[in-house]
Amino acid sequence: xxxxxxxxxxxxxxxxxxxxxxxxxxxxxxxxxxxWYKQPPSxxxxxLIRRNSFDEQNEISGRxxxxxxxxTSSFNFTITASQVVDSAVYFxxxxxxxxxxxxxxxxxGTRLQVFP
Amino acid sequence: xxxxxxxxxxxxxxxxxxxxxxxxxxxxxxxxSWYQQALGQGPQFIFQYYREEENGRGNFPPRFSGLQFPNYxxxxxxxxxxxxxxxxxxxxSSLARAGRDTQYFGPGTRLTVL
Lengths: 116, 114
Fold this sequence. Notes:
heterodimer, A: about 120 residues, mainly beta, six-stranded mixed beta sheet, about 0% helix, B: about 110 residues, seven-stranded mixed beta sheet, four-stranded antiparallel beta sheet
């Protein structure tokens, strides 16, 4: 079954702390894509990263980094030196292109609150 | 490059009424997907349109229907509104179907059904 689990419902940190958001996925396929989106209070989902199943290299973009491990079916997201502007709900999502429909399967999200 | 736009921003309806939500895709994108996001939940896939044809549907009843126009903009129609239809409706566009391209989301339409 296709499924994305974000076990952390809410995380609170103080500015400048590092924080890791966990994502575990289930899929039937060997070819799939994983995504992270940020949803600030305004509601719009902002794309952060896309990863395909054949590329397990970790990625760093500024204060953001992603750790993709197929062996544990996890795609975790770390924010280094968090800032108040990072406060939002973060969603991990999965898509399986071999099933024709380009749908995204989302986790339930992790609400991150960064306090000054 | 213009991003995904949606209208209206907010909408209040009563049970039994019908509603139409609109979405303009990002320039150059030919695929539009619609999602429903209930409060505190992740978005749930409603359906997708590719070149004016429905290309997959989630677990939503037939009273949820849609259209895509030649300019790739799209409408979501919901008939016989129920209280549980209250949600944020998100539209996303992408360059191609079949998961190989990133979906970019609009700001959403918040629907309240009283």
